[in-house]
Amino acid sequence: MKRAALVVLLIACRGGVSEDPPVHLIHNMDTQEKARPYRKDTSGLFPNGRFMQAPPEGTVAVGQLNDDELYEDGWDLNPVGLDGGATGRPDFTFKFPPQVQLPDGGIDEELVTRGQLRYGVYCTPCHGVTGNGQGLVAQKAFDGGMRLEVPPRDLLSQAAKDLPIGKIYASMKVGVNNGNMPSYATQIPTHDRWAIAAYVRRMQGVGFDGKPPEPPPDVNVVSVALGRFYYKNRGCNACHSLDGTKVVGPSWKGIWGQTHKTSGGDVVVDEAYIRESILDPKAKVVDGFAPVMPPPNPPIDDTGIKSLALFIKELKE
204, 234, 250 — which closes off a domain? Predict the structure, then answer.
């Protein structure tokens, strides 16, 4: 008798499909009315008949305010000037944010390793495995007769080493040169962007101490030194040479006072034209060059613009 009961039990549990409703000995949460995504609201709780509701206007989800400019944007709101005091001008940071630093100010090797892995996924196609700007995408673009408006930057060059770490980070978040390098904000989360930036510093042989190669001079005084600082700090050196070499943009050597043909007619290179080119780069693009220069972000104030003009004027000699 026991054997027969066991056989019946095993047959009953054979896993076959039945059209009969399941037997619930205890009517618990399995059978309650509950909300499910993309299903109609049958409870009458929401007037629009949907369970999934848009967040109330003006609200931000917990942990998604993203109000830390240093961590989220790569900006230092109070960078230190040459005299050791705060300049009071937001600019790209030379230091890593505390969220990715060790208590002693160093960088965890696990973060650098993570950056190497992410660099291999997202950066090597253009910048190459070693960071020399000769990735497969760049090689095929030129070999196939296509033209990249702005070639991938050689991350091992001195110009790239001079960049603030915040500028390297921001290039991943917002892109470079009006989409020539697109934004990777969707693909690469904030923490991984800093990891990649740390790995780039490792490739460059630059430390993580956050000290600028040249401390900024007084940002409240117009000077050639301040113009030279912005030339490196804002990445102008990637597109404008100082020795007459034609790269992405016209060389700044000897350009002051010259007349150039532009998309907006003939112009004389003076402070007014330089100001317009910084604030509205596409207004008058020099013939033979692509309109890829973006407006400055963070903005450059009037003192900075005049200093850049003064720096360019000095190169006339």
Answer: 204
- Please state whether 205 falls in left (phi above 0), alpha (psi between -120 and 50) or beta: left
Q: What is the mean pLDDT of residues 158-173?
A: 92
What's the pLDDT tens digit per position in 281-293? 999 999 989 888 8
Predicted confidence (pLDDT) per residue in 89-124, tens digit = 678 898 899 999 998 888 999 999 999 999 999 999
Joined tokens for residue 297? 């972000």
One-letter-per-residue 3-state SS of 1-51: CHHHHHHHHHHHCCCCCCCCCCCCCCCCHHHCCCCCCCCECCCCCCCCCEC
Q: 235 and 143, same structural domain?
A: no
Give the integer Cα–Cα distance in Å for 143 and 139: 6
Angle between helices 190-204 and 109-122 (to 10 degrees): 100
Domain-located, residue 246? yes
Domain of residue 85, residue span: 69-204
**How many domains does the chain divide into?**
2
Distance CA 117, CA 115 (A): 5
**Domain match, 185 and 266 both:** no
pTM, entire model: 0.74
Q: What is the CATH number of the domain that holds 296?
A: 1.10.760.10
